[in-house]
Amino acid sequence: MSDFTLPGFDLDAFVRTTLAEDLGEGLPGGGRDVTSEAVIPADAKFTGVMDSRDPISVAGLPIAAAFFRALDPDCAIEQLIEDGAQVAPGTDLMRIEGNARALLTAERAALNTVQHLSGIATLVRSYVQAMDNPDCTLLDTRKTLPGLRMLEKYAVRMGGGANHRMGLWDAAMIKDNHVAVAGSVGEAVRRARDAGVADIICEVDRIDQIGPALDAGATRLLLDNMEPDTLREAVALVAGRVPTEASGGINLDTIRAKAATGVDYVSVGRLTQSAPAADIGLDFTTLA
Q: Most buried among 18, 173, 243, 280, using CB within 10 Å?
């Protein structure tokens, strides 16, 4: 269906499931677009242009194309902009031509996906620009919508950010609840190390937790809800032994000061959790 691939993400299944939801497959009277069937002749042809209405960073165009091709394999699609590009209002992103019923049926799913992913990419770009620090990397978190993590983290990369853990499987992240059960930061890290975990990220919210976490074998420290002066002190204590990450209380107004403390990473949950949809439109016209 498409050359677009992401590790761990099944594009064909995503398109099928999303369209099935919109069409009401399996529900009484479902499995069809009643409006298009009633109003649009079966052989009618449409041509359309998808465009940006605001300045945005683009993400998701190949996925939108997959929705249209799923319902009209013979439709002609010209992607005019690459994912990751920053565009001005009024920029044409994609041209589409094909069966009118099929294009209308796929339109909402395609637009929802591009608007959501481009909204994330656009917000990420604004954070990267506000951070204004090539020595510090902006990270996302696991605060993603169920079922959309791979796509949302792809959008983060298209906006100029990088990905934190992809899930619970690829690194240990020891947080306050783990520490509460283990009894201490050092004991929690030791248990992860003894279990053979290679990457051990340990959250600390006090300076006195740094030494025990490092001594026990943490491979990264997440410095949680620390103000810039405390972050600088923490970075000096770590002295480059492991990467450091600032997290908590970070927004467009605070990110530059926190990144300037010498941390290697800044992570922001709202990149995926709270990004507004980008304003992207799609206007069709009937072919003679």
A: 280
Residues 80 and 48: beta-carbon distance below 8 Å: no
- Which of 209, 230, 205 is closest to 218 using CA atoms? 209
Is the distance from CB of 121 to CB of 59 less than 8 angstroms?
yes
What is the tens place of the pLDDT at every residue in 226-282?
999 999 999 999 999 999 999 999 999 999 999 999 999 999 999 999 999 999 999
Cβ(129)–Cβ(161) below 8 Å: no
Angle at 87 between CA 122 and CA 2, to 5 degrees: 80
Distance CA 244, CA 235 (A): 7
User: How buried is residue 12: exposed, middle or buried, by Cβ count under 10 Å (0-12/13-18/19+)?
Assistant: exposed
Angle at which helices 61-71 and 11-23 cross, to 10°: 60
